[in-house]
């Protein structure tokens, strides 16, 4: 029996520029933060000659190719360690809420499979292998942010070259700034979960077609991401809050499905009650509303009145780790 723990994430700036359709032409830049909400993967040797899988569904099959779950099937095709194998997935927060759960799941599963085989693997290699499975083998319209932040953890900058190489650098912020973010960054569930693939596929198709509106919007988001890095490294969290608002305004221009009236109402209410800025996590359209609040108490009270539950969080600085080996 072994168990891995892999963090979910919130995107801080530059999200969307980590898709190949954009960075292969212009390069990309993303800041992402791993949070202390996790996906756990357990792998156990069994006494039955099959594969027993437990996630949101249950599967029991004889052959790897019979597995319905595409990530598990593909990962086991790359690492054929069965049969007589049980794989269990448990998450602190359900999928489809914009916290990068698919990338986190893939990284955590691969970390478990490497550990099972007693193979050392670096965070960079782990992230690239997860990207290869999701983007190349499964042809998902995904970027590289989720897999990399799940592997490395922390609050981290990812600069992506046109050939896909990723340069990883932890955000150079002070301890007081880190504590300020943990105190003033608030996260509320909007009540909507969604599949990000439709929004991301629309972005991919329009970018590959040379849609100037989409490309300009992504370039603007990338520029705001760079400004966010400067503000946080300077300890100017007030400027960071304002840049979050600018980032959200620019991100919304990419697609009509990026938000919805109920979410806009909640966001405006947060601004009216002490938030300096915020954004929806993930591709948009639902999930969690993250705001930087100069007055957290007032924002929490207003969001509670609107029926949006808060999820308290801190930052995860470990990335994907092996918790248990017995």
Distance between the termini: 5 Å
Number of strands: 11
Proportion of beta-strand residues: 15-25%
Mean pLDDT: 90
SSE string: EHEEEHEHHHEEHEHHHHEEHE
What is the overall silhouette? globular
Number of helices: 11
Sequence-ordered SSE layout with sheet pairings:
Layout: E1 2-13, H1 20-26, E2 28-45, E3 51-54, E4 58-61, H2 70-78, E5 85-91, H3 101-116, H4 123-137, H5 145-152, E6 155-160, E7 166-170, H6 175-184, E8 185-189, H7 197-208, H8 212-233, H9 237-252, H10 261-272, E9 275-280, E10 288-293, H11 296-305, E11 321-325
Parallel strand pairs: 3-5
Antiparallel strand pairs: 1-2, 1-11, 2-5, 2-6, 3-4, 6-7, 8-10, 9-10
Helix pairs in contact: 2-3, 3-4, 3-5, 4-5, 8-9
How would you describe this structure to a colleague?
42% of the residues lie in helices and 24% in strands. It contains eleven helices and eleven strands. The strands form two sheets. Strands 1, 2, 3, 4, 5, 6, 7 and 11 form an eight-stranded mixed beta sheet that branches. A three-stranded antiparallel beta sheet has the order 8-10-9. A hairpin with a 5-residue loop joins strand 6 and strand 7 (166-170). Helix 8 packs antiparallel against helix 9. The mean pLDDT is 90.
Short overview:
By secondary structure, this protein is an alpha+beta fold. The chain contains eleven helices and eleven strands.
Features:
326 residues, alpha+beta, eight-stranded mixed sheet, 11 helices
């Amino acid at each position: 029996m072994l168990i891995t723990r892999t963090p979910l994430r919130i995107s801080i700036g530059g999200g969307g520029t980590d898709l190949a359709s954009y960075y292969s032409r212009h390069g990309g830049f993303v800041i992402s933060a791993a949070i202390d909400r996790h996906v756990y993967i357990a792998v156990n040797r069994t006494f039955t000659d099959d594969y027993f899988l437990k996630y949101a569904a249950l599967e029991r099959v004889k052959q790897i190719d019979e597995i319905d779950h595409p990530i598990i099937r593909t990962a086991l095709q790359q690492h054929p360690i069965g049969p007589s194998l049980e794989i269990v997935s448990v998450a602190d927060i359900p999928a489809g809420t914009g916290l990068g759960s698919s990338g986190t799941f893939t990284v955590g599963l691969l970390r478990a499979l490497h550990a099972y085989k007693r193979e050392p693997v670096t965070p960079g290699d782990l992230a690239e292998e997860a990207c290869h499975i999701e983007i190349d083998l499964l042809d998902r319209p995904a970027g590289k942010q989720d897999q990399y932040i799940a592997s490395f953890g922390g609050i981290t900058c990812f600069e992506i070259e046109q050939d896909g190489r990723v340069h990883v650098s932890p955000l150079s912020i002070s301890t007081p700034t880190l504590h300020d973010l943990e105190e003033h960054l608030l996260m509320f569930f909007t009540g909507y979960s969604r599949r990000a693939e439709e929004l991301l596929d629309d972005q991919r198709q329009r970018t590959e077609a040379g849609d100037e509106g989409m490309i300009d919007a992504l370039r603007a988001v990338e520029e705001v991401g760079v400004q966010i890095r400067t503000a946080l490294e300077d300890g100017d969290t007030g400027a960071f809050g304002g840049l979050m608002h600018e980032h959200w305004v620019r991100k919304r221009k990419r697609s009509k499905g990026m938000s919805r009236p109920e979410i806009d109402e909640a966001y405006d209410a947060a601004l009216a009650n002490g938030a300096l800025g915020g954004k929806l996590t993930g591709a948009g359209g639902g999930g969690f509303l993250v705001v930087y609040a100069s007055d957290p108490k007032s924002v929490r009270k207003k969001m509670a009145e609107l029926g949006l539950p808060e999820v308290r969080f801190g930052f995860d600085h470990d990335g994907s780790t092996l918790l248990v080996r017995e």
